[in-house]
Amino acid sequence: MARNFTRSRPKQGERLLQFRLAAGFSQKELADLIGETQQNIAFWEQAEKPPRSDTLPKLAKVLGVSVEDILNGEGTSPKKSGPTGKLQTLFEKASQLPRSQQEKLMDFITAFVSHYQQNKEQKTT
Question: Sign (positive/negative) of CA torsion 91, 60, 26, 83?
């Protein structure tokens, strides 16, 4: 169960929290992806002190932001130029599949997106 803190969250910690939530990760999931502990993620989200310099690039990549955004990006939000968070991780794993499996996955995704777009168009007309 999450603890309620009475003091306000520092700006850097708040940014990290918002980036993590926007990417759709729990603290544990993010920690596993970057090779850290859940406790470190919780600490960085509550502290003025930023993550270690060797961890910042890993965090930025997984969260879909720049290191600068994590450190001092006032009011920034994750970039929407491509998949981030869980979707990016899934695509990276899918890229390791054999070519025939990748093609099956692309067929499924294409059909899924096409079906979604058709439903969306029907609702607007």
Answer: negative
- Same domain, residue pair 70 and 116: no
Q: Which amino acid is at 4?
A: N
pLDDT in tens, 12-35: 888 899 999 988 889 999 999 999
Q: Let me know if 117 is exposed, middle or buried by CB neighbors in 10 A (0-12, 13-18, 19+).
A: exposed
- Residue 3: give the domain boundaries: 1-75+85-94
Q: Which of 62, 71, 73 is nearest to 24 (CA)?
A: 62
Write down the pTM of the prediction.
Answer: 0.59
Query: Looking at residue 68, which CATH number applies to its domain?
Result: 1.10.260.40
